[in-house]
Amino acid sequence: MFKSATARTVPRALASRAFARTLAESSTFRPPFIPLVADSGFPGAIGNTPLIKIQGLSKETGANIYGKAEFMNPGGSVKDRAALFIIQDAERKGLIKPGGTIVEGTAGNTGIGLAHVCRARGYKCVIYMPDTQSQGKINHLRFLGAEVHPVPAVAFDNPMNYNHQAKRHAESLENAVWTNQFDNIANRQAHIETTGPEIWAQLNGEVDGFTCATGTGGSLAGTARYLKNISDGKVQAYLADPPGSVLYSYITSGGKLTERSGSSITEGIGQGRITDNLRPDIDILDGALQISDEKTINMVYRLLDEEGLFLGASSCLNVVAAYELAQKLGPGKNVVTLLCDGADRYVDRLFSRKWLQSKNLDILPEHLQKYIALP
Length: 375
Ligand SMILES: Cc1ncc(COP(=O)(O)O)c(C=O)c1O
Hints:
By secondary structure, the protein is of the alpha/beta class. Helix content is 41%, strand content 13%. Helix 4 crosses helix 5 and helix 8 (186-202) crosses helix 9 (218-230). Bound molecules: pyridoxal-5'-phosphate (PLP). It catalyses: O-acetyl-L-serine + hydrogen sulfide = L-cysteine + acetate; O-succinyl-L-serine + hydrogen sulfide = L-cysteine + succinate.
């Protein structure tokens, strides 16, 4: 008959002492914040991500710098939250019925989030994206069952821009919705109802600062709005912006919208206009931080080396911004940002020496050089 490992190998007295210790430890056990059962399937597993304290940067500043581990969402990014809320909103408004089609123009994480939720809810998913995007991204969406249309990369004012094509595609079908992530405020609502409250609960209301970058603006606007409201304006909320976005100068100039100039290696963030998601909340922001690609790339490797965190560039830009905000707010303060997705989706670029050289970003200190694993 099978005997347990304890009975076979550990003398009885020793085993019972170990058992007593296990029981004593379990009396201090605190229930986990994360629900263990996602009864509604994939959608129920979205959100409730941990807050990870960034040890090295916290020590350096004397503040507590936390990154919300959005890369742990089941579709791998912060955009799972928006994808779910946008689809639920369309269902509630009767815009889509069982068997319908979700159409979006996106090159990135929103498409992945939508494709997952579509499979879980029984919808078809159609994605338009510029044909300049990597084959890896196109493949990823196709693996998830999405119909992908790579189309010529033309400016927004051209009717053949991928967003307009997505809209027309949805209009040409029965029972289809163009989800329009940039101006669909169900996106922002996801962060008002989930990201913001989670951060507030996780830190017992002791939040002093929040910062993150914007693509659609949903994450920054929704989270900042919730944290400002619940704290009576006490939480300092800052935009983190890459070069090539107009928002930093818009905020720091008191509302002047300039022509877009410059560019950044970050993906999924940086904006040329004030989206409907950002508009209601842009005036509640306390300031903006512009983060160079050099600082972002350095942080990609530093977080890997010091913290074991393998993160995409937008997350690392966010962490640089959180570090700068922590320096502004001072020791003892709690500053939070978002770790939007992992580095896996960008390894061909971020970890290639040739690519770094092509962007004049082969700038890492000697001790971090060993992580550049690709030629
Ligand atoms: C990697 C990454 N980071 C940040 C963002 C920005 O999030 P939001 O659209 O909520 O502004 C996105 C958006 O697609 C993204 O893909």
